Amino acid sequence: MSDYSGRHRPPTRAERRALERRSRLPKSFSATYALPTAAAVTLALTAVGATAAESSPFSGEVAEQAAASLSATTLLEDPQLGKDARIEVAAASRDSSGLSERRRAVSDDVVDSQVRAQERADRDKKRKELVAKKKAEQKAEKSAAGWVRPLASGSLTSGFGFRWGRLHAGVDYGASVGTPLRAMGDGTVVGAGPMSGYGVYIDVEYADGTVSRYGHLSSVAASVGQQVAAGDTVAYSGNTGRSTGPHLHLEIRPGGGEPVDPTGWLTERGIL
């Protein structure tokens, strides 16, 4: 059929229908199916955001932020977008940004709390390790039978034997004035105070009847009749009596009798 209808002839019915078909919008774009502006913007924002999130190399909150930012930017740059829709998109973008900042703040608080908790745990662990180390050192000081050395540290400076025409009835340990002296085992204080030649002394009797005597003390820290345990401080070293310098004079008296060379007794108990 020709499009030309002549100068004065009106279009026929068939021609009018053909023209209407050409100008008619698709059914999906008719008023019945058109979405309100706000709903259309929301759908567009959701669709673009989902696409960005799926294709993003990030994950979690980073991907959400990237998708939201990309959606808002894309829609705001659309020349077909109305003024009201632009306002809604911008508001949605601000809300998304604020939510991300709040999430980040909460995340930072959680991290800080975890760091502080870990620091406390580390400090507690170090304290426990120090306590355990100290106990292990104290335990190591004891022999298998539960004996300890009279001093925490110190070396022998003089042995048992005759010296200058008289018997040196014990062994000497170098120690400055005021050094704590310990009971070598569980026992009872059976003597303490001043004595000629010894200056200030203290005697401790152990379960097997052996008596240890500490001489030339500056002071005693236990009284006669007191029960003491291995490692308890019973006196402090000094330079009293017949002494040429501060030290501990130690004698071993089996059964409370005459002194013997302490070396063998100390060696047998692993505390020489």
UniProtKB/TrEMBL annotation:
Pfam short name (any one): Peptidase_M23
MF-aspect GO terms: metalloendopeptidase activity
Keyword Hydrolase in annotation: yes
Keyword annotations of the record: Hydrolase
Residue ranges that the Swiss-Prot or TrEMBL entry lists as coiled coil: none
Biased composition range(s): Basic and acidic residues: 12-23, 117-137
SUPFAM superfamilies for the chain: Duplicated hybrid motif (SSF51261)
M23ase beta-sheet core domain: residues covered: 167-262
Spans annotated as Disordered: 1-24, 91-137
Record protein name field: Murein DD-endopeptidase MepM/ murein hydrolase activator NlpD
Species assigned in the record: Janibacter cremeus
